[in-house]
Amino acid sequence: MGRSRELLRYTGTRLALAPVMLWLIATLVFLLLRVAPGDPVDAVLGSRAPEAAKAALRARLGLDQSLGQQYLDFLGGLLHGDLGQALINQEPVSQIIREALPASLELSVTALLLAAVTGLAVGFTAIARAEGKIDLAGRFYGIGTYALPPFWVAMLAQLLFAVTLGWLPVGGRFPPGMIAPDGSGFLIADSVISANWAALQGALRHLVLPACTLGLLLSGVFTNALRLNLNRSLRSDYVEAARSRGLSETQVILRHALPNALLPVLTIAGITVASLIGGALLIEVTFSWPGIALRLQESINQRDYPVVQGIVVVIAALVVLVSVAVDLLVAFLDPRVRY
Amino acid sequence: MAASDFSGVIDQSRQSRLASLKRRCKQMQPLSSALSLSTALALCISQSACQPGRRSDRITVASAGRITSLDPAQASTFGALQLLSALGDTLYKRTAEGELKPALASALPEISDDGRTVTIPLREDVLFHDGTRFDAEAMAFSLRRFLEIGTLSYVVGDRITAVEAPETYQLRLRLSRPSSSLENLLTATNLTPVSPRAYQDHQDRFLNDRFIGTGAYKLTSFRAVQQRLEPFKQYWGPSPSNAGLDLIYLSNSTALFGAMRSGEVDVLLSDSIDEDQRLALNRMAAKGRLREGQGPALVIGYITLLSNTPPLQNPVLRQALALSIDRDLINKRVSHGLRPPLFSLVPPGLPGGDLKPWPRHDAARARNLFIQAGYCNGKVFNLPFTYRSNVPADRLMALTWQAQIQRDLADCLSLKLDGVESTTVYRQLGEGAFQAVMLDWRGAYPDPEAYLAPLLSCKESQRSICKRGEAAISGSFWTAPGLETTLLQSDRSRGDARQRDLESVEQMAAEGAAYIPVWLVTPRAWSSTALATPEFDGNGQVVLARLQEQR
Question: How many Å apart are CA B249 and CA B11, to the nearest integer?
Answer without folding.
Answer: 63
